[in-house]
Design brief:
Penicillin-binding protein 1b fold, 10 helices, 11 strands, disordered C terminus, Rossmann fold, 19% strand, 3-stranded parallel beta sheet, 288 residues, globular
């Protein structure tokens, strides 16, 4: 097969490569384009094919910077959220693609699926401020760090076991950032970060040390810093008015076509019977 398309300027689309040989072709193309810092993107048909392709690329070229971007394991607006490990892999890939820092000369291959590229993702403007770098010896404000976790989709837990969780116990903060195989334990002495230790999420025992870490968001639903959530103090009201992010309609507005009795019950959260016109209890005050 001719590989003139590798040296061709601009974007090239290659298809019809036999399964099994495509991994070798991708690694060769990535090696040729590494000097120009041009990554290679491959779109697989499904997650099973993506997993086999990633394994083959690791066999042919283990030095390649391989970024996998799988699709959600649930449908949009489903009752079940995507798996936390899967979301962690997606966010790790997105933040690394958004970062302008690329190791010169190292091949990079991005593998994804048809379903994954049809989903909307956060913009670069939102992903950039959502990454926080910590180094041993840095001065850290614990309250500011907790605010960073809360604003980027992390969930507070008693014990950190899954990606996207964090726990606070005095001067020790446990967190499971995206892109890491194991969670981290931040050991603070006052405002100084004394140590970064990896630990096993099941036994909670330390397994290694790190000098630095990039804390990445734990959720793909990110909002600009100028936006505030509804229900906070009145001081955040101007920020809410300026926010351009659309809010979902309330239950009352989505059920205007329903009868008046059921609309009142939905809007107030009443679980009483709607067969009578008498007022409800003093707690609910919704008409029955």
């Amino acid at each position: 097969m001719s590989q003139d398309w590798i040296q061709r300027p601009g974007r090239s689309v290659v298809h019809g490569v036999p399964e099994g040989f495509d991994a070798l072709l991708l690694t060769r193309a990535a090696g040729e384009l590494a000097a120009r810092q041009r990554p290679v993107l491959h779109v697989a048909r499904d997650d099973a094919r993506l997993a086999r392709l990633a394994e083959a690329i690791g066999f042919f070229a283990p030095e390649t910077d391989l970024l996998a971007f799988p699709a959600w394991d649930c449908l949009p607006y489903d009752r079940v959220s995507p798996n936390s490990q899967l979301v962690s892999r997606r966010l790790d890939t997105l933040t690394r693609l958004a970062s302008p820092v690329v190791e010169v000369g190292r091949p990079r291959i991005v593998v994804t699926t048809v379903a994954a590229i049809t989903q909307r993702v956060p913009s670069r403007k939102l992903l950039g401020p959502a990454v926080k770098r910590l180094r041993v010896g840095d001065q850290i404000d614990a309250d500011e760090l907790i605010g960073f976790f809360q604003g980027n989709g992390y969930t507070r837990a008693d014990t950190v076991r899954e990606p996207g969780e964090y726990a606070v116990r005095g001067g020790i903060i446990d967190v499971y950032p995206a892109g890491l195989a194991e969670p981290l334990r931040l050991d603070l002495f006052g405002d100084t970060l004394e140590a970064l230790r990896e630990f096993d999420p099941m036994s909670q025992r330390s397994t290694g040390k790190r000098d630095a870490v990039d804390l990445k968001p734990a959720s793909e639903i990110l909002r600009p810093r100028s936006c505030s959530t509804r229900g906070r103090s009145s001081a955040s009201a101007p920020a809410i008015a300026r926010c351009s992010v659309p809010r979902p309609p309330t239950i009352r507005s989505t059920r205007r076509s329903a009868p008046a009795t059921s609309t009142s019950a939905w809007s107030t959260g009443c679980r009483c019977s709607t067969s009578s016109s008498k007022p409800c209890s003093t707690t609910c005050r919704a008409p029955r």
